[in-house]
């Protein structure tokens, strides 16, 4: 009881401090305390059941996305829940679906309430609900295959994309699978862009202006930034908006199947089809950047492409930046642990601790200079230079 009242006081204090402020550290601590309070209040069986019944909720949300349910609710504009009959009519579905999917109704109602003050015209066009499709279509079947995989191959951790639970279920690596399903590749790319919307970008964590204010080369061939595995360039475009006055070329690198689907790239950003397991063609750039790429790979693969990058770097001028989780040795967040599992299941990758980062960087001829983090941000920026 004392634990619960202490937590209740903590939640009240943090909620009060939150007020209208936008302090991400306070916000993160508030959510942590609420989570602890829920665990303290729940009986163990209630915790077990809450987790056990999570998958149907996830599937119901994916179903709602497929139906465009949120758009229907927002467009409808009424206060309070829509009846199953109306929902069925508006989505050309059998009413019984809504009757059976009871789980969908509270979710839909909650979303409607949450958006009650947001006129439909103010909703982002490419809203996160659509971008979440990758998290369901790609992740859930593969994760469900983990048990079968571990039973079939022994209890060992996959270290290559070819031998993951994903490959066990789909008979192809995740990227091969997406190559045959362009719509899934689109969901993947838009998920990559969307999940960053609320999170600080690498250049909001790493001190760009302080670091680049002197010594930056400004010749026509000089490269300021190479974003390696940049997807459609969402980070590069934001970087350009903010730091477009810095001299130097901005280079986007990704596999040809990605670069050929890039449209509307901001002027001044060069797209280059490149496989990072081959030698890096851009030498002596000021910054080489990998955004959530390394966690897709096992240590040996990371060492191959980080060594290739180190070979292109210029001593005393080039910096390598990596944006990924730096997981604490103890007390990792549930989200970091879930991402670690997800990376293993999908691609044979992993999240890493600082000690693990130091080890793969050193094996690639690089020295970890500093880990830059922001309170409340899940990923950090790892800065490295040539040894
Ligand atoms: C997890 S996404 C990260 C995208 C982006 N950097 C971000 O932070 O959102 C990994 C990206 O690496 C690309 N990629 C995977 N293997 C690659 C390779 N061998 N060479 C170049 N790019 C690769 C993928 O196409 C994908 O766009």
What does this structure look like?
The chain is of the alpha/beta class. It has three domains: 2-122, no CATH class; 133-194, no CATH class; 205-386, Rossmann fold (3-Layer(aba) Sandwich). It has 22 helices and seven strands. It has helices at 2-18, 24-41, 44-52, 54-67, 69-76, 84-90, 95-100, 104-114, 128-131, 133-137, 139-144, 146-153, 165-170, 174-179, 182-194, 202-205, 208-212, 234-243, 256-259, 299-312, 334-347, 354-363; strands spanning 223-228, 249-254, 269-273, 287-291, 319-324, 366-372, 380-386. A seven-stranded mixed beta sheet has the order 3-2-1-4-5-7-6, with helices on both faces. β1, α18 and β2 (249-254) form a beta-alpha-beta unit. α1 (2-18) runs antiparallel to α2 (24-41). The chain is globular, with a radius of gyration of 23 Å. S-adenosylmethionine binds at residues 192, 229-231, 235, 254-255, 258, 274-277, 291-293, 296.
The largest beta-sheet arranges its strands as 3-2-1-4-5-7-6
Task: Name every ligand kind in the structure.
Answer: S-adenosylmethionine
CATH architecture of the largest domain: 3-Layer(aba) Sandwich
- In CATH's first tier, which class of the largest domain applies? Alpha Beta
Share of residues in strands: 5-15%
Helices, by number, come to: 22
Approximately how much helix is present in the residues? 40-55%
Note the main attributes of this structure.
Rossmann fold, 7 strands, 11% strand, globular
